Amino acid sequence: MTKPPPLSTGATLARYGLIGVPVVVLAAAMAYVHGWLDPGRLTPERIVDTLQASGGDHPGYRRNHAKGVCVSGWFESSGQLARYSKADVFAPGRTPVVGRFALPGANPYAPDSSVPIRSFALRFTQADGQQWRTGMNSMPVFPVGTTEAFFASLQASRPDPSTGKPNPAAQQAFFASHPETAPFLAWVKTAKPSASFATERYDGLNAFYLVAADGKRQAVRWDVEPVGVTPAATAGEGADFLEHDLEQRLAAGPLRWALKMTFAAPGDPVDDASKQWPQARQAIVAGTVVLDRAVPQMDGPCRDINYDPTVLPQGIEVSGDPLLPARSAAYADSYLRRTGEVDTLDTAQERRP
């Protein structure tokens, strides 16, 4: 066999170029995503760093909603949404759920009375393995509608090193420069820390699309509303009264929430969580979330779940809301940090004051 002539210098460089270009492009893409090419660019790491700075260093815990408790049960579908979404979770029947109640903030030891907001995250697992993950909060509207404004709010809320508390002037300046926060501020003025996770309504706030078998799409927002519960007269004693109240209620029987889907009308803002929809919009009860068990988060099934709101089954799709991909990226960064530190959780619990 005749040996091929050696490549010229130009041909050799050309081959190296064909190999190297994809590598360089990939490296550049990674650098862009992580902000290495532009140190001033907003990245998931910067968002999570800021969240962590507000609550202190607590290895092994989430960087937001750090204090929580795991719950489990099932979702009993009413079948009423089957015509609007091809997701199996909306077909008649039961779908297992693993959830988590929590407080906002990065401090896993914060007193339950420290903030008026409670959160509720759920993971629905269909028989075909597809999952629907969602995080909801006990407030009717999100303060802002963009990632940049959310980051600015985090910076304005960072503790002042001299006082250990947020600087009121910085917060006032933020709200003055973001008039879209007015509905949220109006709610905050009357909001009080509830005495029970079980008595709260939790709103998804971001909009999504239901996708029917024929491809038709309908923009929706969802919430869960408690069914058949008695509000606590007063909050329990101690810093952890919410978890104790939850355990006592579950000991008496399962807790239930109606999962309601509210349909957007033409012209309703779909891509801005700071804009509310009129209360008269069509709503359908998709079914009932039933919880029958609570477990401390250190050992519970929710501990290692990333409640990324963009993890969806076929039949539910994300909207163009910019907060959704930002939440997904920040959750992923927080997840990687805490799972890399999870061995420190037991030690941290032992050191808890």
From TrEMBL:
Residues in the signal sequence: none
Organism: Pseudomonas quercus
PANTHER family given in the database record: CATALASE
Alphabetized Pfam families for the sequence: Catalase
CC cofactor: heme
Function: Has an organic peroxide-dependent peroxidase activity.
Protein name: Catalase-related peroxidase
Transmembrane region(s): 16-37
Domain Catalase core: from-to ranges: 20-353
